[in-house]
Amino acid sequence: MGAKPLDAIFTKLMDSSKVLFFLLPLPKGAGSSSDSPDAVANRDAAGHKPPKAPRQQPTSSDRYQDSHAKSKGKSKSKVKSKFSKGKGSKNVPAALRGGKLTTNSGQPICYNYNLGGCNDAQPGQSCWRGFHLCSAIKCKDRRNHGLPDHNPDTHE
Hints:
Order of helices and strands: HHHHHH
Number of strands: 0
Radius of gyration: 32 Å
Largest sheet: none
Number of helices: 6
Helix content: 10-25%
Structural class: mainly alpha
């Protein structure tokens, strides 16, 4: 038997870097496609993916066991980052720090109104930044004035 016509070409391509590049393994987690043979086999007749199973919430006993489990090894140090999103991470102007920043229902209060610079809405109404309400903590009459007009003697 003689040599087949494609044998010489395949032998040449086996050493080609262009072909070998596509034979390299992919990094972990990459290359997972939704059209893989397993994913296609799991679809229904209409081609839709099956719904995901709902996530189970841990019970109180699971949380207790997790919080009281013995640690295995040294724990990582708890270093605060300047980019952390903890309490007090909002950019609150110094004049408003310690004041009320949201309504009782959690809606924001307009910072500019309480600094004396927002005319986008009437007192007690809402602009795109938040509600025009006084941000003083003990203010009883929030809807009629902002922080610059707050008088502790008459409004508390």
